[in-house]
Specification:
174 residues, mainly alpha, two-stranded antiparallel sheet, 7 helices
Length: 174
């Protein structure tokens, strides 16, 4: 791992190769990483609220190809933040969305996982996606015979199955 503090304002630190300085930088990097992950559950809840209130902003935040809005700091295209959203709460929110927003949400999820090089960073979300799928299928079966049940099943068939297949490890072809 490289130093996180190699310099300041385009000036290199004189002692950046000293072992104690490297240890200090490693400590700072570790502390920053810990703080980052401690904040993830709260950030995920904020993201869930955004999903419910502004589906287009949600898309901007989670997808690489989306136009960046004024919230440049809220970008999670390469961060497995969805893991921090409770799957049953996510499906509950989807179930209460209008069908157009739910369709757009699942299209955005498909867009999130379309690049293999980014998927290497997002593969941690695979089990979360499988949980979403199980809950979505259960909810669709409870609503069988209703339009809402058909819509939920359609979201799974048209988007979620493909996303899960794309993230799933490839079988060894020996």
């Amino acid at each position: 791992m490289g130093n996180i503090l190699g310099g300041y304002r385009n000036l290199a630190f004189q002692g950046k190769e000293i072992e104690e300085f490297k240890e200090f930088c490693d400590y700072l990097k570790s502390a920053r990483k810990n703080i980052y992950f401690e904040r993830m559950p709260r950030k995920a809840q904020d993201l869930l609220e955004i999903m419910c209130n502004d589906i287009f902003k949600f898309h901007q935040i989670i997808c690489l190809d989306s136009p960046s809005g004024k919230d440049g700091d809220l970008r999670y295209q390469e961060v497995p933040i969805l893991n921090y959203i409770e799957a049953d709460l996510f499906v509950e929110k989807i179930s209460s969305m209008n069908s157009e927003d739910a369709q757009y949400l699942f299209w955005a999820l498909s867009e999130r996982y379309k690049y293999d090089n980014i998927n290497e960073k997002l593969v941690e979300e695979l089990e979360w996606l499988k949980s979403i799928q199980r809950l979505l299928v259960d909810e669709a079966s409870r609503r069988q015979g209703k339009l809402s049940g058909y819509c939920l099943n359609s979201l799974n068939q048209n988007h979620l199955i493909g996303v899960i297949e794309k993230l799933s490890p490839k079988e060894n072809n020996l």
